[in-house]
Model the fold of this input.
Amino acid sequence: MLHGLACGGCSYQLSSLLATSDADADVETAAASSRPGDHAERTADASTPSEVDLAYARAVAAEALAHGGRDASVPWENPHTGAGGNITPLAATHSEGGFICRDFLASYVRAGAQAWLQGEACRTDHGRWEVKSLTPLKRG
Done:
């Protein structure tokens, strides 16, 4: 799986990237109950990522930063909402509060609308990457 992630060209489901826990079950349950056409889906702006979509993007971002190189985009997709995009690690690592961190960009495409997000992830004491922020890209 890691080789495929490094090479790109396909997307991953959240459940295949994360260990199952109560928190993961909550995200998967929310994703399963959130189908296109549901009230929550109709009221959300298509260019504004839902928390469930962001969970999928964060999971792929952590894997991309752990195994991808600079400027190596990795696709992500939430099969329950049809949202997806790419995660692209940016600059080399930097130190923040004693942790190694990296910035990345994420595209978000859903229902014909597109948005860009900027994020930062840091390597934890256990060696895993954890996304610290994922927010709309600030322009200008």
Strands lie at 74-77, 84-89, 94-96, 99-110, 113-123, 129-136. Confidence is low (pLDDT under 50) at residues 1-43. The chain is about 30% helix and 30% strand.
